[in-house]
Specification:
- The protein is an alpha/beta fold.
- The protein has 10 helices and 8 strands.
- It has a 3-stranded parallel beta sheet with strand order 2-1-3, with no helix packed on it. Strands 6-8-7 form a 3-stranded mixed beta sheet. The protein has a two-stranded antiparallel ribbon with strand order 4-5.
- A hairpin with a 2-residue loop joins strand 4 and strand 5 (165-166).
Length: 299
């Protein structure tokens, strides 16, 4: 994060500068956890472990539960130091997700008290990089420790940039994946000659497949994890909207624009998916085809 100078008229608070430079941070983090390329500098910024006499690094993140445990593992791997790299203390702050987090993040940077590293959604980067609230990465330094553009999908990497500079290292992505019961799909006539789920190719084919699965199982045809996470429905809408070929237009200083016809098509399909038959509004005892968000691990 970038710590901007305090606003005019607001006295600065003088504190000892115990924070390591970005170059030192990357040397510690990446030398200690070369296998965790996708985590980038976050790997080395969130460790409760310490080494005697090491400088402290401040980090804000929002990882709890299983994600928090994985972060703890990455922290332990890099904070000890390896390959001649010095270890370091970490001042980790775990906050709750939500708009209030991003407000705190922006205010801390604007007030000169930003964390050295913080987690954020890439969709938020457009509000931080132009205002100088985050610092760009040194791509040569990243490459020196094995982190390059080729390690990420083009769609994800492109969102880390602002005016040609890279301001973020992707930590994880959330693709939609499909699980299906082969016995139920076979009974519904949905498998190809190789015994795998055959391509459907259209919204109508998907709906028909859901009905066939419901008939084959006597329960639900398609389940989608929208009940306990309202963000899931918006993610599904965004994914389906993109498949229509339409774009969101977000011009600077102007109102957002959306292809209304494409949006109506998507919402209509989602309404049919949640008709109480293809995808019931309550969780039934049986299931056949399930779509959900994957965070890169099995549970």
């Amino acid at each position: 994060m970038s710590s901007r100078s305090p606003a005019q008229g607001v006295p600065a608070v003088s504190t000892p500068d115990r924070r390591p430079s970005r170059r030192r941070l990357l040397r510690n983090a990446m030398a200690g956890a070369g296998a965790l390329l996708a985590a980038g500098p976050l790997t080395g910024c969130t460790s409760p472990a310490s080494a005697s006499g090491a400088s402290a690094l401040s980090v804000w993140d929002l990882f709890q539960g299983g994600d928090g445990m994985l972060m703890d593992d990455m922290i332990e791997a890099v904070s000890k130091g390896s390959g001649g790299a010095e270890g370091f203390d970490v001042d980790r702050t775990i906050l709750d997700w939500g708009p209030s987090y991003y407000t705190k993040l922006a205010m801390s940077a604007a007030g000169g008290r930003a964390a050295d590293v913080a987690a954020m959604h890439l969709s938020r980067l457009a509000g931080y990089a132009p205002g100088g609230l985050v610092d760009a990465f040194d791509l040569d330094l990243l490459a020196e420790y094995g982190v390059t553009e080729k390690d990420f999908t083009p769609a994800v990497w492109s969102r880390t940039r602002h005016e040609g500079s890279v301001y973020a290292i992707p930590l994880d992505v959330h693709p939609f994946i499909v699980f299906y019961d082969k016995k139920a799909a076979d009974k519904a006539g949905l498998l190809d000659t190789g015994g795998e789920l055959a391509p459907m190719g259209s919204p109508e084919a998907l709906l028909e497949a859901g009905k066939a699965l419901a008939e084959a199982t006597g329960g639900a045809g398609i389940l989608f994890g929208h009940v306990t996470d309202t963000a899931q429905t918006w993610r599904l809408f965004a994914g389906l909207y993109a498949q229509t070929g339409a774009d969101f237009d977000l011009p600077d200083g102007g109102p957002p624009k959306i292809d209304v016809d494409a949006a109506v098509r998507v919402v209509t399909l989602m309404t049919r998916l949640f008709d109480g038959k293809t995808n019931p509004t309550v969780r039934p005892p049986g299931r056949a085809l399930r779509a959900g968000r994957c965070s890169g691990r099995r549970t």
